[in-house]
């Protein structure tokens, strides 16, 4: 896939990373220095930014650039592009639509042809008049006329109506027309390339567009490259949350790994903490052992709500700390306290929302919506992905709290409208081809997302694990809820505890979902009851019911009808 000139990025990093030589420093100019600022100086005055905050780093160093693959740019076949441009013009002209291809922008996967609408020419008879405005007549008294040509601009709708004819002429079933291209007076026709180029993470992170975003925020991440080959980046801090959809094999999970690597390439564990949730067990679990993690990758759907509720408690505690200092957000708080008291940003990456909505739909939706509504000021950001963007998974409340969305190839136009409010995602090519809808725009733009291999992920993971630095401060998200925080009656113990105890005594194994079904209660309350049973020693942490010999005899007698 990649050329022979790529660097030795696969070398195991089990040794101490050497100090970079001057040529490497020039190569690494796009990344944060080893002693980073919390967020580098920006261009906008009057905003609260972290550019004045210096971090000692706690001994942590950021990964070097040569760990990532550089990739190889495929040559552009200019002759073939010119021939396709002529074919586009001729095909539309056959239907009486005059256009001129004024721009050709080759990209890694698609090439965009910029069409400038021509003219519709019409001839009509016009009556001649004299200087006084009276009609001129011939010797027979008839009005004298002449032929006049009128020109009207070709309607954009006329070009859109010929999409299938263009697809037939170009032998490309998956054309996409963007009319007009935002900020330009052309109609964009995106045609898939005969050969596709892989967009590597390193090629985007070394681009000027990524440097511009990372210069203002350490939560910038690489998106990929547009149809014209220009690098695209975004700032998670400004989004402040991202909703991702895509069917199996569309590149959704690779994109999530790319976002995570972009973030940990700029932030030490003191600046950024991650909570990764992967019910599929295979997409994010290779990142286990990363020092940025708040907990091992969560794979059990029944534990997700517990972690999200713990994150809600952390968010509430952060708001109380900011209220005590009289500041509005995490930037103001970190600027007012000592370095050892600063709060890191927290990014939650959830790979499959549909699985959680099947286990505990109400509680999952409630926790996600509350974090999305209030998390930004406290430095908590969500990245939620699903391969089934139906209305029962991506509900109206969830959708309203995620203004930034990215859609890879989906099954139907209905799914595309659900995630983006517009069709088009059902025509994407797959393998990283996506439509990205930023919060400041009403129209999505097409991007080929970055690709990261398993070897790159493991190389970056080994780099972080090889550093002999003290672990970052622990943030406990699984602590049991205090009695004063529990709802339902003020006595300290849930009023349904006795019923839950009776259910437990009748079982050998007890799970939260089983309690939820038996008692017909919500998932959070069933989880609290399970914690109470565990605190009382009725069940073990693994859910096994603890019984004494006498209890076993009594249960045996009951089973035999004594």
Protein architecture, described:
The structure is a single chain. By secondary structure, this protein is an alpha/beta fold. The protein has helices at residues 22-27, 78-94, 156-160, 163-170, 201-205, 208-214, 252-264, 301-325, 330-336, 353-359, 361-374, 396-400, 413-420, 454-465, 497-505, 512-519, 523-535, 549-559, and strands at residues 99-106, 110-117, 119-127, 145-153, 176-178, 187-192, 220-225, 231-235, 242-245, 272-277, 345-350, 380-386, 404-407, 433-437, 445-449. A 9-stranded mixed beta sheet has the order 8-7-15-14-13-9-12-11-10. Strands 1-2-6-5 form a 4-stranded antiparallel beta sheet, covered by helices on one side. A two-stranded antiparallel ribbon has the order 3-4. Helix 8 packs across helix 9 and helix 10 crosses helix 11 (361-374). 40% of the residues are buried.
Short description:
The chain has 562 residues and is α/β, with parallel strands linked by helices. The chain is built from 18 helices and 15 strands.
Q: What percent of residues are in strands?
A: 15-25%
* Text of the CATH class of one domain: Alpha Beta
Sequence stretches where pLDDT stays below 50 over 5 or more residues = 1-52, 481-491
Say what the CATH topology of one domain is: Rossmann fold
Helix content: 25-40%
Counting DSSP E segments of at least 2 residues, the number of strands comes to: 15
Query: What's the total helix number?
Result: 18
Largest sheet: 9 strands, mixed
Strand order of the biggest β-sheet: 8-7-15-14-13-9-12-11-10
From the coordinates shown, what is the CATH architecture of one domain?
Answer: 3-Layer(aba) Sandwich
CATH homology superfamily name of one domain: P-loop containing nucleotide triphosphate hydrolases
Rg, alpha carbons: 30 Å
Mean pLDDT: 83
User: What gap, in angstroms, lies between the N and C termini?
Assistant: 73 Å
